[in-house]
What does this fold into?
Amino acid sequence: MIRFARHAVIAVCAAVSAAGSLAAQAFDQRAVGRAVFKELIETNTTPSVGNTTKAAELIAARFRAAGFPVADIVVIGPDETHKNLIVRIRGADRTRKPILLLAHLDVVEAERSDWSMDPFAFTERDGFYYGRGTQDVKGGAATLVTALLRMRAERFTPARDLILALTAGEEGGMPNGVEWLLANHRDLIDAEYCVNMDGGGADSENGIPIALNMQAAEKVYFDVTLTVRDKGGHSSLPRRDNAINTLARALVRISDHTFPVAFNEITRAYFLRSAAFHSAALAADLRAAATEPGDSAAIRRLSDDAWFNALMRTTCTATLLSAGHAPNALPQTATANVNCRRLPGLASDSLIRILTSVIADTSVALTILEDAPQSPPSPLRADVEAAVRAASEAIAPGLPLIPTMETGATDGLYIRNAGIPTYGLSGIAIDTDDIRSHGRDERVRIEAFERGQEFTYRLLRIISAPVTP
It folds into this structure.
């Protein structure tokens, strides 16, 4: 199976190279990609005043103009301003399940006063494209759209259907498009597996790519409210069971608690493959920790690093506090929000039992505020890995491929939970010290975006097993 897949990928790469040289004469990938990217950045899709429907319609118009059948272009959603775009590219073999291509249209808020420029103007400066969403994740959306338009210009017919889904609500503040589609129109996005532009991606240093991360798992978001109630009283007569004191003791116990280490296929592969990029001592610890049964001394040293610790364990930390009603009164209520990121496989009721045991105080009430569904790790498929490795030659020859687990959250959670393996991939390399997603003056290197365009085009050609027209 692996040997066959490797030979098939080599043959496809040769076909892609030949097609690319011909297509360059008819399709200006650089110009189209820049135009699509600009259009997306300059369409405000924030939760407060934005409109994902407008962005979806603008991109839909491009597909209609390119000759895609109108029936295969759907703009759909729960209300007029939060719609999603679904485009189906028909393949030769309808018996094979499609491949889903996912990116979200919405972005987080951005204030003009916080930026050096208008966050909703597509600004080209000093070799970078600036604008809200350049990193998260309109750059990825633009590469998908451009690749599919190029394939149409080449009259390329995939062997199976490809489904493009540009969705709303990944960043919160509006209905989540993926969740809504799965609940109401699963047939539009049902697939064998999903390639998600949000999560994973290429790392670079000073613009030079050093590794390509493929996100195949993610931790599960979980908020729990801790509440302590008391009769209160005059502050001149303090008691040890002051609601704030009781809550503080509970939070300290949670802070002091260390959850057990649990590796899965993805995190184990990440530790083993990424070891080559670190110092000899750190590399030895990574390998020792990830090799069963796991070296306890190595795990202890790695646990001092927030990133490695978060990959090995469920984590819980206090994020919000509220208490009291007057400076001269004992508090009658004290509350705290504790945000947890559960490892895949840890159920919410199990986590509540753990926290209840750790707090060991019945006067502290625990209430689940927000709980996401399970997100089981996706298997490391040999065919997907082979295709990604081949396509990554467009970014940098021999670029290492490293499976990763997201410590935050993406819409891949909903897709995986629906039984569709999901792989977070983007060919747009971001410098490891220049991650500006959700931040001020968000940007991507122009050269990195153009490499990412070529990566996405090659990847889609390879994974869709082309049929010669």
In short: Residues 1-15, 18-24 have pLDDT under 50 and may be disordered.
